[in-house]
Every structure is written in structure tokens, then in C-alpha cells.
């Protein structure tokens, strides 16, 4: 089909759709069923069986299996079968952990799936791009990624960057008119837009003509390689650490075996014990548990409206030392209401809040009759004509379809009885140059019924003042003298000083014959008409969030396109600007180099009247000062700064696709406070990872040392191989995972941010692991020796007691790991997952100690009740020793 040659109506006919109403939901469903989802096929994933079998790929597990089979042949059936069963159980544990991790990551991917704005049943709505079908009418604006191949039926200043398809990175201007037949190369199809390409400017509407693998992208992509899994810095560090730990564990095991053999143990016996020890001591579950902790943390963040798009961001969040945040919508409600209007030297105030269309106009606090105020009416009329938003209603709820700033202007005009529908019947818009944050203005060219034409521009008053040669005074134009300029500036300052966001309107008449000027030509030589000031109240929760960030050693910086005084007033209300804090404006920022900015950046808390490209400079200067920077943004031009920041943050509601793609964190509610809770969660996740590393490694050190000490002291084996394996299975699995689900300690947001280069074992973790491991080894051996001697060398009994002590010591230690300081700092029942995990582990140990059929398998005997006092006492001893030493240290420091 030569879609590009057809007129829009024929496109609709061929695609069986209605340009005014789109498809019906029912028809769309039918088409979706018939033609499938609008997605590119991905390479197949690993099957569950492969993931399961991969669990056996570990070298030591294979050695263990081989050793077991040999022992089976030597007649030790029970041992052999039991060991194999444990190995399989271990594989299942690994398998479920890995699957769980993968599923969570998959769910995350789904959440950040792209969306499209589609016309269905006559209403514009947002759906997942996946659900687009041929015939759908979709619209897009700058920053959107096109969801399917479309034939354009409307294009307003539309430019699309198609490098994904053509390799050409300069955006192509698009239009909606039919083309001649011969233009068939993708780069020449100027009235079509293709899946995966990017709108860099303007806006457009198009009819979907191909989806999924039938799109131009689908045809070249064939089979997309599965996106590579991203690992976080910590995961990579742990991978390296894992390798070192394997070597250390193996060396120690070999040492155990050699010493054992020298002391007279049989080589065969020592070999199996050694291999079991190696399997137990190697923390093979660590990577999967880290992934689960990361993924579960990420899910907790989703509940708080923060979506992590890139897993490494979870860790970086904990290091953030500066948050640079947009003001409008992120720190404020983005619910604007015009309260003040100035024109011709007169100031009116307007009553009414929000989207209420009723309100009174006052001058000098006295109500006025708006019908008699031609000046005011003219200003309001122009601000409605130069406006691409609309007031709409759905299910009895009024909302603004478009920009809230423009919405406020519409509402103010409606209060004077001027509606967009009515004005659009009187005027036609010949051209529109959309708003962008760079120019800080927008322009339309309109014509009324009698053929009179105007250029109307609205935008930041200080910018409009620069390009206005005249001022409108009581219906007449006067040259803009220095005095007039001062008067206008005075008004701007007065409004901005009250935290009002200001918008000015200016115009220039055009003769009937003048051709439509370019954007540059249109936006000069204007006549300034008046200024409207609107309030945008701060979000109530932001002040507290800013305060909490401050306590956590994180500086908040406000970045806004608004006027300096508006920004200052709001920054003060929110507690962002300290008494000696400085403000910098865009023009000053432009003049400074990154080096110069670096010198002063630490003192600046507010950047006002900035353009998006300034943000990159700010990020760079802060990073050079050694900061870890979070930067928010929503538009196309924000993307470079979002990418360059350590944590790029995009707005979920108002953000463009480009900003979201560049970001590592997306705020579903566009709210500053959400960044603060994400940082809180990020710190917590990192702490949880440290908790179970501490737990797992201390346990493993304990396991190895109890064997090593026994061999050195020429004692019999304190644990048989199968007991070692059982300890590993019971203690490594559930309790470690439960630690990953722990809540943050109270003081987590009262510490300074973590240094990004900080090692895993910093802040005393390495010492805690080794010292605790040594003591667990010692108490286990002590229990073994005491009972061995007392019972007249009853080896099976002594081994059972050692087994019980080792497990108990680990299950008590797991509660220690919840706190950086002492176990007594936190309620042990604070993490019920952990309590249940520990109880279950305990049960699994009691079963093998007391259930006769399992006693045979595990070489255990029933332990007398009184001996549990010895077991629990010794197992709990390390906790009291450490807590005691902590408390004495604390009281000593208190005394000092
Ligand atoms: P922040 O960075 O805090 O979100 P902002 O994004 O609102 O601020 P911009 O949108 O760049 O900043 O707006 C800068 C200025 O441009 C505003 O102060 C206002 O004067 C003007 N402005 C904003 N929106 C429009 C619009 N739709 N049409 C014309 N002018 C606008």
C-alpha cells in the first residue's frame, strides 16, 4: 500500500477508521486479537529446566556429587543418597531464588513499557504502545517516541529524528500532505512517522498503518537480541569477591584435610568431609540473594511511586549527596490559578481557586463589571487564542488537557465569560510556533472573520519585554521608553516577589497580504499588552522531605525556568534557601565556564530562569566537586543532563519518552518527596545487602574454623559431612533472604551519604565477620569437647551437640546482623519474616536430631533436654560478648 500518496480521508478509508473518533474499543480489541500485539519479537529466554540444571554447574557441587557416587559404590548408600537429596534441595533453592529474581526484573520492565496517546470512541486516552492496532489514530508531541508506523494527518512544526532507522541524526521536518509516488525511501517519506523514531519538535496526529514486525523497524530488526542483563557495581564487586572466597574456602578446606590426615584420620573420610565443607563454605547463594534484595527493594519503591529503570541506580541512590530538582510540578502542585492581572497601568485581582470557572474581578478591592473593561477583555482574549490547551470534563470532573500554565489562563478568561470554543469560532489560527523552555514563549498567527490578522506571543515577561518595541496603553501603542521598561519591570518584580509565576502577552498586527513570517521574524518588534500572575502552591509534603534530606547530608537545589524572585520566594517557603544561600540566574550561568561554576556551586541553592541546557553544566560542576548528583527533568532538552547525572530522574506523568528513557528513576507522581523516599529505600537496600553478607560469611567462617580447630587439636571430626551440608542448607537459605527484606534502621536517614567508592567490608564489617566467625567456631568446638569428654567419648552424641550449637549460634547471630551496632538496639520481632525463617530452620534441625529415621541418615542421636542449656548458652555467648563490649564502649564515650 502506497500510504504516502493518499489524502487523509483515503487513508482513513483504507485503514477502516474514523479520523474524528478513532476506532471503537471493541473494534480495537478485535484487531488486536486478529493481528497480535504491537511488539518486536525477542530472542527466547532460558527455559526453566536449563536454569535448574545450571545449578549443578558449580565445580565444587560436581566434585561433591562425584565423591558421593564413589562413597555409594563403597557401600555407604544412606550417606550417598542423603547427600544427593541435599544437593538437589540446594539446587531447588538456588533455582527458586534465581527465578524470583528474574520475575521481579521482568515485572520492572513491564512497568516502564512505553505508552501512546490514542483516540478511541472519540476520546483521547493513554494505552500501552503494545496494544496499538492498524487504524488507531494517535497523537504525539516533542519528546515522544512513535509507537507504530503512522501516516500523518496533522503536523504542527513537527520534526522527527529517525536515526534509529536511517542513521541520519538530523531531524526531518514532517507534514501531512500527500506525496508523489516516487518518494519511497524511508528518509523521503515526509508524511509518515515510524515506530521507534523520536519527535524532537512540534506535534502531530497520525493513523497507524503497521504494527509489530510489519513496521519498518520490525523488518530490519528481525529478531531483537534479548537485552543484556545489567549488573550493579556491587554485584560486580561481589562476583570478584566470590572468586576470592572460593579460593580461600578451598585453601582452608585443603588445610583441614591435610591436618586431619596428618592427625591420623582416614583420607577417604577427610576427603568427603573436605568437599562437603567446601560446598558449605562457598557462598554460592550470594549473587541470587543480592539480586532478590535489589529487586524486592525496587518493588517497595514502586509502592512509593518510584520506578527504577536501571538496577545500578538502587545503589547509587544511597550515595546521592545533591538533588537538583525542577520546581514546577515537582516541588509545587502544578495547579495554577491566575490571581493578578496588570495592563495599562492598572492591576486587577481575580477570585476563585483551581478549575472553578466562576470568579470575580476586582480593582482596588472593589468588584468591577468585566463587560465594561475592554482592556482586560482584550488581554484575556489573546491569552486564550495563543494557547494550545483546553478545559475538558470527564465523568463530571474538570481537567486541563495540556499545560497547567495555559489552563490557568483559560480559567481566568472563562471567569470573564470568554471561552475557547466561542473564540475559535471567531478566529482561525493560521500558524503556531509551540512553546519551548529555551525561548520561554509561544506564538500564534490568527485571523478574524473580517480578515484582520495578528501575531500573538505569550511568555516570560522579562523575555517579552526584550523583544517588545512598544507598549499598549489604554488601547493605544506607545514606544517602549526606558521609563516604560522600568514600570513593567517593577510590576514583574512585585508579582514574582509574591511567589507568582508570571506570563506576559504581546502582539503585532499583520496586513492581509503579508506572508506568514518565520518564528524568528514573528517574535520581534511586538507590543507588550499586559501580564498575568498565577499562584502555584508548594506541595505540602516537600518541606518535610527537604528537611529530611538535609538531615541525611543531602543538599536540595531548585532549578527552574521561572523568574528569580518567584523561585526565591518558593525556595524560602520550602526551606531550601538557607540564610547565606545564593541564587544564580540563567544569563549569569551562561557566562560562567564549568570551571568557574565549580568554584561557587556549593553555595548556590536556586538556579532561576535557566534553560534545560544549563542543567548539564550544573551537573558537571557538582560532579567535579565530588558530589553524587540526582537531577530531575521532563523534556527532550533535559535528556543530556539526566543521562550525565549519577541518578537521572524523569517525571512519570509530565515527562516525555526521551526523558524517561534517559532516566534511571521515574517518579510516578512527579513529586520531589518521592525522590527522598527512593533514597531512603536505596540506603536500606544497601544496608540489607551488607546484613546478609555479614551473616553468610560469618557463618561460613565459623563452619570452617570449627573443623580446622578440631583437626589442629587432634580431635575426632566434630561434624560429619551430611551435617555440614544440612547446616548450610538450613541457615543459608531462608534466614538470609529474610534479612534482605528487613526494614531500615531508624537512623538510616540521619547518616551522611555513603561514599561511592566505599568497599563492601567498610565500616567495620570485615572485622565483624571474622571476629564473629572465630567465636562461633570456638563455642561450637567447646560444646563438642565438653560433651565428648563428659559422655565418655560418645562421638555421635558430641557431634549432634556440636551440630545443634553451630546452627543455634548462626540463628542467633542472624538477629545481630539486623543492627550495625548492638542487637539490643532493635526489637527482634521487628522483622517477622526473619522470625518465621528462623523458627522453620530450627524445626528442620530438631527434626533431624529427634526423628529416628532421619537420625540414621544424619548420624544424630537425641539430645537430652538439659544439654540444650549448654547449647543455647554457648550459642548466645558471642552475642552477649559483642553487645557487652559495645555497651562498655558506648558508656565510655558517654562519660568522655
Ligand atoms: P521548572 O523548571 O521549575 O519546571 P518551568 O519548567 O515551569 O520551571 P518553563 O516551563 O521553562 O519553566 O517556563 C519558563 C517560563 O516560561 C515561565 O516562567 C513562564 O513565564 C513561561 N511559560 C511557561 N509555560 C508557558 C507557555 N505554555 N506559554 C508561554 N509561556 C510559558
UniProtKB/TrEMBL annotation:
Transmembrane segments: 48-71, 77-96, 244-264, 270-296, 692-717, 723-744, 765-788, 794-812, 833-853, 865-887
Pfam families membership: Cation_ATPase, Cation_ATPase_C, Cation_ATPase_N, E1-E2_ATPase, Hydrolase_3
Keyword field contains Cell membrane: yes
Domain Cation-transporting P-type ATPase N-terminal: 2-76
Keywords attached to this entry: ATP-binding, Cell membrane, Ion transport, Magnesium, Membrane, Nucleotide-binding, Phosphoprotein, Translocase, Transmembrane, Transmembrane helix, Transport
Main location per the UniProt record: membrane
InterPro entries named in the record: ATPase_P-typ_cation-transptr_C, ATPase_P-typ_cation-transptr_N, ATPase_P-typ_cyto_dom_N, ATPase_P-typ_P_site, ATPase_P-typ_TM_dom_sf, ATPase_P-typ_transduc_dom_A_sf, ATPase_P-type_domA, Cation_transp_ATPase_P-type
Subcellular location: Cell membrane
UniProt-listed SMART domains: Cation_ATPase_N
Membrane-protein topology: Multi-pass membrane protein
Source species, domain of life: Bacteria
PROSITE patterns: ATPASE_E1_E2
Family designation: Belongs to the cation transport ATPase (P-type) (TC 3.A.3) family. Type IIA subfamily.
NCBIfam families: ATPase-IIA1_Ca (TIGR01116), ATPase_P-type (TIGR01494)
Protein name: Calcium-translocating P-type ATPase, SERCA-type
Amino acid at each position: 500500500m502506497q500510504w504516502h500518496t493518499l489524502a487523509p480521508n483515503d487513508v482513513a478509508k483504507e485503514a477502516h477508521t474514523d479520523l474524528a473518533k478513532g476506532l471503537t474499543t471493541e473494534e480495537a480489541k478485535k484487531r488486536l486479537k486478529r493481528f497480535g500485539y504491537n511488539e518486536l519479537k525477542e530472542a527466547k529466554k532460558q527455559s526453566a529446566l536449563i536454569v535448574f540444571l545450571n545449578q549443578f554447574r558449580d565445580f565444587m557441587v560436581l566434585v561433591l556429587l562425584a565423591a558421593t557416587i564413589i562413597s555409594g559404590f563403597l557401600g555407604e548408600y544412606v550417606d550417598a543418597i542423603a547427600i544427593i537429596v541435599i544437593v538437589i534441595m540446594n539446587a531447588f533453592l538456588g533455582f527458586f531464588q534465581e527465578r524470583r529474581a528474574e520475575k521481579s526484573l521482568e515485572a520492572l520492565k513491564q512497568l516502564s513499557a512505553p505508552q501512546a496517546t490514542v483516540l478511541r470512541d472519540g476520546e483521547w486516552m493513554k494505552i500501552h504502545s503494545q496494544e496499538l492496532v492498524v487504524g488507531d489514530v494517535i497523537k504525539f508531541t516533542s519528546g515522544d517516541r512513535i509507537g507504530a508506523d503512522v501516516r500523518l494527518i496533522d503536523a504542527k512544526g513537527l520534526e522527527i529524528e529517525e536515526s534509529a532507522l536511517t542513521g541520519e541524526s538530523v531531524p526531518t521536518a514532517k507534514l501531512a500532505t500527500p506525496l508523489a509516488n516516487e518518494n519511497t525511501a524511508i528518509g523521503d517519506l515526509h508524511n509518515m512517522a515510524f515506530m521507534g523514531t523520536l519527535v524532537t519538535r512540534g506535534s502531530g496526529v497520525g493513523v497507524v498503518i503497521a504494527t509489530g514486525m510489519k513496521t519498518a523497524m520490525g523488518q530490519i530488526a528481525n529478531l531483537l537480541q534479548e537485552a543484556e542483563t545489567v549488573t550493579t557495581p556491587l554485584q560486580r564487586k561481589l562476583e570478584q569477591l566470590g572468586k576470592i572466597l572460593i579460593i580461600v574456602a578451598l585453601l582452608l578446606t585443603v588445610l583441614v584435610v591435610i591436618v586431619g590426615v596428618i592427625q591420623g584420620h582416614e583420607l577417604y573420610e577427610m576427603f568427603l568431609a573436605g568437599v562437603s565443607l567446601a560446598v558449605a563454605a562457598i557462598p554460592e547463594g550470594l549473587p541470587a540473594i543480592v539480586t532478590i534484595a535489589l529487586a524486592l527493594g525496587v518493588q517497595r519503591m514502586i509502592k512509593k511511586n518510584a520506578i527504577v529503570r536501571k538496577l545500578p541506580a538502587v545503589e547509587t541512590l544511597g550515595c546521592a549527596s545533591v538533588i537538583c530538582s525542577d520546581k514546577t510540578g515537582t516541588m509545587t502542585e502544578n495547579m495554577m490559578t491566575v490571581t493578578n492581572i496588570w495592563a495599562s497601568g492598572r492591576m486587577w485581582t481575580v477570585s476563585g481557586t483551581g478549575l472553578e470557572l466562576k470568579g470575580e474581578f476586582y480593582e482596588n478591592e472593589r468588584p468591577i463589571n468585566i463587560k465594561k473593561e475592554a482592556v482586560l477583555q482584550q488581554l484575556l482574549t489573546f491569552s486564550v487564542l495563543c494557547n494550545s490547551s483546553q478545559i475538558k470534563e470527564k465523568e463530571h470532573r474538570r481537567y486541563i488537557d495540556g499545560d497547567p500554565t495555559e489552563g490557568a489562563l483559560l480559567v481566568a478568561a472563562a471567569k470573564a465569560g470568554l471561552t475557547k470554543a466561542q473564540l475559535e469560532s471567531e478566529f482561525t489560527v493560521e500558524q503556531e510556533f509551540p512553546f519551548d523552555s529555551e525561548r520561554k514563549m509561544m506564538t500564534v498567527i490568527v485571523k478574524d472573520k473580517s480578515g484582520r490578522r495578528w501575531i500573538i506571543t505569550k511568555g516570560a515577561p522579562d523575555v517579552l519585554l526584550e523583544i517588545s518595541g512598544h507598549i499598549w496603553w489604554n488601547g493605544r501603542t506607545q514606544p517602549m521608553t526606558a521609563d516604560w521598561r522600568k514600570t513593567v519591570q517593577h510590576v514583574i518584580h512585585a508579582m514574582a516577589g509574591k511567589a507568582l509565576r508570571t506570563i506576559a502577552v504581546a502582539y503585532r498586527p499583520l496586513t492581509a497580504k503579508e506572508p506568514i513570517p518565520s518564528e524568528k521574524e514573528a517574535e520581534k518588534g511586538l507590543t507588550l499588552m499586559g501580564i498575568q500572575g498565577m499562584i502555584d502552591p508548594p506541595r505540602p509534603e516537600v518541606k518535610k522531605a527537604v528537611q529530611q534530606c538535609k538531615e541525611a547530608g543531602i543538599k536540595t537545589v531548585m532549578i527552574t525556568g521561572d523568574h528569580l524572585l518567584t523561585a526565591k520566594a518558593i525556595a524560602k517557603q520550602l526551606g531550601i534557601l538557607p540564610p547565606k544561600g545564593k541564587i544564580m540566574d540563567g544569563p549569569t550561568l551562561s557566562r560562567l565556564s564549568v570551571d568557574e561554576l565549580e568554584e561557587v556551586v556549593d553555595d548556590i541553592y536556586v538556579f532561576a530562569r535557566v534553560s534545560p541546557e544549563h542543567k548539564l553544566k550544573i551537573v558537571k560542576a557538582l560532579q567535579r566537586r565530588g558530589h553524587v548528583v540526582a537531577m530531575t527533568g521532563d523534556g527532550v532538552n533535559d535528556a543530556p543532563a539526566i543521562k550525565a547525572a549519577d541518578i537521572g530522574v524523569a517525571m512519570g506523568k509530565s515527562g516525555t519518552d526521551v526523558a524517561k528513557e534517559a532516566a534511571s528513576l521515574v517518579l510516578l507522581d512527579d513529586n520531589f518527596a518521592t525522590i527522598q523516599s527512593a533514597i531512603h529505600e536505596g540506603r536500606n537496600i544497601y544496608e540489607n545487602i551488607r546484613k546478609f553478607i555479614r551473616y553468610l560469611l560469618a557463618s561460613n567462617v565459623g563452619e570452617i574454623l570449627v573443623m580446622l580447630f578440631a583437626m589442629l587439636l587432634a580431635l575426632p571430626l566434630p561434624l560429619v559431612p551430611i551435617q555440614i551440608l544440612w547446616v548450610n542448607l538450613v541457615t543459608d537459605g531462608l534466614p538470609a533472604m529474610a534479612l534482605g527484606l528487613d526494614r531500615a534502621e531508624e537512623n538510616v536517614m540521619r547518616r551522611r551519604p555513603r561514599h561511592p567508592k566505599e568497599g563492601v567490608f567498610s565500616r567495620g564489617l570485615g572485622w565483624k565477620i571474622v571476629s564473629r566467625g572465630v567465636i562461633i567456631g570456638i563455642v561450637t568446638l567447646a560444646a563438642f569437647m565438653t560433651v565428648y569428654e563428659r559422655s565418655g567419648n560418645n562421638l555421635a552424641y558430641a557431634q549432634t551437640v556440636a551440630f545443634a550449637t553451630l546452627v543455634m549460634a548462626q540463628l542467633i547471630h542472624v538477629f545481630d546482623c539486623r543492627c550495625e551496632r548492638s542487637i539490643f538496639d532493635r526489637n527482634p520481632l521487628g522483622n517477622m519474616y526473619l522470625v518465621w525463617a528462623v523458627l522453620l530452620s530450627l524445626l528442620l534441625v530438631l527434626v533431624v536430631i529427634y526423628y529416628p529415621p532421619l537420625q540414621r541418615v544424619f548420624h544424630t542421636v537425641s539430645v537430652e533436654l538439659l544439654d540444650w542449656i549448654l547449647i543455647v548458652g554457648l550459642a548466645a555467648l558471642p552475642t552477649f560478648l559483642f553487645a557487652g563490649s559495645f555497651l562498655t564502649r558506648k558508656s565510655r564515650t558517654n562519660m568522655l
